[in-house]
Amino acid sequence: MSGNQETKLNNLVEWSKQQGSSIDSRVVFKYSEASGVHAIVNDDVQESFSLIQVSKNILITPDYATDYFGVKENDPTNINNSWLQLFVAKLKFDTNEPTILTTDGVNCSEKWKHYIDYLPETLNNPFWWNEDEKSLLKGTDAGILLNRQYQSLLQEWQSLITVICQKFPNWATIGNTELAKLQGLTTSKHKLNTVTSWLSFPAYLWAANIFTSRAFPYFIINDHVKDLNQACLIPILDLLNHKHTAKVGWSYVDHQVNFVPKQSLKSGDELFNNYGDKSNTGLLLGYGFVLENNEFDETFVTLKVDESQITDAKQLGIKLPEGASSIGINFSITNNDCLPENLVNFFAFLVQLKSEKAMITLRMKLDGLTQLASIINQKVEFYKTQGKINTSMASKVSPSVIKVVKSYMLCQKKLFQSCFEEIGKLEKSLLKKHKPLSFKTVLKNDKPFMNSLLLTIGVSSYDTLVKQKIVDQVFLLWVVRSVNLFNDGEKSSVKPPQFIVDEFKQVAKSIVVTKEDVLEYHPLYKTFFPSLPQKIPEIYGHGEWGIKQFIIAGTVADRVCYTRSANNELFLLERKAV
Ligand SMILES: C[S@@+](CC[C@H](N)C(=O)[O-])C[C@H]1O[C@@H](n2cnc3c(N)ncnc32)[C@H](O)[C@@H]1O
Q1: Number of H helices, E strands in the chain
Q2: Which residue pairs from 176-183 have beta carbons closer than 8 angstroms and sit at least 24 positions apart in sequence?
């Protein structure tokens, strides 16, 4: 820490004490490159011992802003702490009119001088990164949210400044100049990082980021607060860094905010606060750092589908995440639930066939999992490559940004990796539980059919069919054979599966064969006919072997087949709800 910053910190601590706050003598403030100012205890501390008491006198609360700007608490522009943020921007950046007086004569600039002087001017969260640095987040949750939050802050600021210009004629000139700077600029060209006045957008952005990185919920000190997002600034307590496992308590007693660690501390331990169960995306955007092994980490699979599909999925009993709409459905992937049931079911729904109306079948579930696995695998690959920052980029971005981006990417990749592994496990357990018929076993048991393959195409095992990529064709041939065998009624050692025969009959009843179908199946048909009945008449010489039978078998295949991608094993699934 520079000497100047150290002086500012000491001034802040002294001022807070003069204003009635107390800091236990075992708490000392230190500085590190990695996490800035933080507190250490230089002796053991018992659990539940109140270490810091901050006087109400020094808190920056919303009432100061509403009083100063003459805004009603329920004013529609008074959302997201907007007026309080503007108030803090004025405290920090207004050099023309440095005295801010409230209606009852409190000189706010004087009052919070040491606190405002201490607040960091340069923030390290992505809102303050240069364009090359920001581009490293392209395609990530953080990148998407960064743009979205930037836009909404911009709109929030525009509404505030418009009100300011109407209400306060002496600020209107600066306000209008600041508003005009943004006219005609596209989103990507917003490189406004320089504070030109307290009414400028960068001044507001700075104040908003001070709130995301340092503010506390206002309800801690005011029971009547209805809006849980309403915030206040609590000097001194905001010098504590975050640990997601830290057990802490905040309470408001006798006009003081008490900070109490709910665990004992050893001499030399860092005295942490707990900012809440935040994901790395939340930490990165709000605070500029991420935690490896963050148990609250989260990422999303976002899908865009029609409104009608959302309605149909709900009708099927799938509980969609809150806010699901045709704009997007965000399925949350966390460490605790890296493969949410509703995501699995929604993918099953997406591959539903007409013949599977009103139920989720094993085939839908397995096929849906295959589609999902492919998307998740793309995400894993994306984070693998995106996480490797190329050397040409490395010269344009700061090492601290590279470090935080790499760490963020790695954690996101881990979540998707766990999701991918979980898909494999679920597929395995579904197959184990429902034990669907394996085509490999079918062939092993149907010796005459297997012999016929050997004599005609020279193939003697399932694995060779896989190698030659002809499993699907042979499956169609076997379906037609099974139906003929069944219709023959002959006593045979081979029993065709009843559900295959039933499915074939059902398709046969409703199918309308088109010219396109015939053209599609013609090449396959020609490979088997007329040679098969000539060579092996005992199987192919009686029954129905027309091209139509193969077209029907094709639809049967769509309805009953599932190929496990890990080993290309083909399973035949009965249609039943799971
Ligand atoms: C409430 S302030 C804490 C005091 C701050 N370190 C300072 O220098 O004033 C929050 C900021 O501290 C830093 N910080 C907090 N917890 C951290 C952690 N576990 N690892 C790295 N930086 C952390 C981040 O820069 C964050 O934006």
Answers
A1: 24, 14
A2: 182/154, 182/158
282 lines ligand 1 (CB under 6 A): no
CA distance 401 to 223: 40
In the chain, domain spans: 3-58+234-275, 68-229, 298-434, 438-572
Burial class from Cβ neighbours inside 10 Å (0-12, 13-18, 19+) for residue 447 reads exposed
CATH number of this structure's domain 298-434, picked from the four choices 3.90.1420, 3.30.70, 3.30.420, 3.40.1000: 3.90.1420
- CB count within 10 Å of CB 145 equals 16
Q: State the pairing for strand pair 22-23/27-32.
A: unpaired
Cβ burial 547-576 (10 Å sphere, 16+ → b, else e): bbbbbbbbbbbebbbbbeeeeebbbbbbbe
Q: How far is the CA of 523 from the centre of ligand 1 (A)?
A: 68
| Backbone phi, psi, residue 543, to 5° | 95, -175
Residue with the two structure tokens 């020279």:
458
Hey, which of 52, 237, 287 would you mutate to test ligand 1's pocket, going by the most ligand atoms within 8 Å of its Cβ?
Answer: 287
Pairing of strands 298-303, 248-253: unpaired
Q: Is the CA virtual torsion 270, 273, 276, 279 positive or negative?
A: negative
Give 476-531 pLDDT, tens digit per residue: 999 999 999 998 876 777 889 999 999 999 999 999 999 999 999 999 999 889 88
The whole-angstrom separation of Cα 100 and Cα 16 is 20
Cα–Cα nearest to 345, from 363, 360, 328: 360
How many other C-beta atoms can be found within 10 angstroms of the C-beta atom of residue 277?
11
| Structure-token match 């007026």, residue found | 83
Give the residue whose CA is nearest to atom 13 of ligand 1: 35
Measured distance CA(242)–CA(274) in Å, rounded: 5
**φ/ψ of residue 275, rounded to 5:** -80, 0
37 lines ligand 1 (CB under 6 A): yes
Cα–Cα distance for residue pair 261/238, rounded to 1 Å: 15
Residues of the chain with pLDDT under 50: 187-190
Which residue among 241, 269, 294 is best mutated to probe the pocket of ligand 1, counting the most ligand atoms within 8 A of its Cβ? 241
**CATH topology identical between 3-58+234-275 and 298-434:** no
pTM of the model: 0.90
Q: Which CATH superfamily is domain 3-58+234-275 in?
A: SET domain (2.170.270.10)
Peptide bond into 261 cis (omega under 30): no
Does this complex have an ipTM over 0.90? Answer: yes
Cβ–ligand 1 distance for 213 under 6 Å, the answer yes
Would strands 437-438 and 22-23 be described as parallel, antiparallel, or unpaired? Answer: unpaired
